[in-house]
Amino acid sequence: GARSKIARLVEKRENSAVMNYVKVSTNPVVNRIMADLAISTTMTEGRNFAYYLKKHLKNITDFKDVDSANFAVLKTPGIPSVLIEVLYLTDPVDAQLLKSEDFIEKFSFGVYNAVVDYFYRE
Question: Other C-beta atoms within 10 Å of 16: how many?
């Protein structure tokens, strides 16, 4: 969850948008329960995919770890998603890597392999 007051306000605003996606009943309590279930499932699948990314990117980047955040874009029901922070433009070494065709190709191939593994998992 959000740690600062501003982050909590942003999270609340974004989360209210999520409620518009899940309306299965005229009962708001039922809708909240269904939304929570859908969001939980979506975030779990996003986290599962993130581990495939880590597996395929750990030798390409200094992959720290898989983390989570309560942003609406990461919890839209039915659409598992991830946010990838690769490198920092403010770091001169990272900035050079981001300009490197070799790095971009390896990184892209790593993401591609993660997607393939995720969808073909057993």
Answer: 10
Distance CA 43, CA 74 (A): 7
d(CA 4, CA 34): 27
User: What's the structural domain count of the chain?
Assistant: 1
Q: Give the 3-state secondary structure of residue 81.
A: coil
Task: At 103, give phi and psi (nearest 5°).
Answer: -65, -45
CA distance 51 to 34: 26
Q: Which structural domain range is residue 96 located in? A: 5-119
Indicate whether 115 pLDDT > 60. yes
Instruction: Provide the pLDDT for residue 103.
Output: 94
